[in-house]
């Protein structure tokens, strides 16, 4: 049985999206994985597919993962659990993550079965 029914992976790198999808499916962490290379696409599909957990890249030019969280707030959406993804994490990223109640943590890429097993 899957931990989560609907999982969003939002990352501007299609290769990272594929890796995340494979890890989530391989570990049976999520039943259905939706991947997006642009945060706006995820926001637009929100009403049709409401995820229970989101893996969100911090840096996705031209926007950021933080922009995505702000868009959800403006839409009046209570976001589910969010794990920020990044190749490197700065002190500023950690401080900013603390400002969002939905952000459970920051994961250094790549997502692995071990990292998934450690999530709440």
TrEMBL record:
Keywords: Phosphoprotein. The modification 4-aspartylphosphate is found at residue 57. GO terms for biological process: phosphorelay signal transduction system. It holds the Pfam family Response_reg. PROSITE patterns: RESPONSE_REGULATORY (PS50110). Residues 6-120 form the Response regulatory domain. InterPro entries: Bact_response_regulator, CheY-like_superfamily, Sig_transdc_resp-reg_receiver. This is Response regulatory domain-containing protein.
């Amino acid at each position: 049985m899957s931990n989560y029914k609907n999982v969003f992976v939002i990352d501007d790198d299609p290769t990272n999206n594929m890796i995340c999808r494979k890890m989530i499916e391989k570990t049976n962490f999520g039943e259905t994985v939706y991947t997006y290379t642009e945060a706006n696409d995820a926001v637009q599909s929100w009403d049709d597919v409401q995820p229970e957990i989101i893996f969100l890249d911090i840096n996705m030019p031209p926007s950021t993962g933080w922009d995505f969280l702000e868009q959800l707030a403006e839409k009046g959406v209570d976001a589910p659990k969010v794990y920020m993804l990044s190749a490197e994490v700065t002190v500023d990223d950690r401080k900013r993550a603390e400002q969002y109640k939905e952000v459970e943590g920051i994961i250094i890429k790549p997502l692995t079965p071990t990292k998934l097993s450690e999530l709440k």
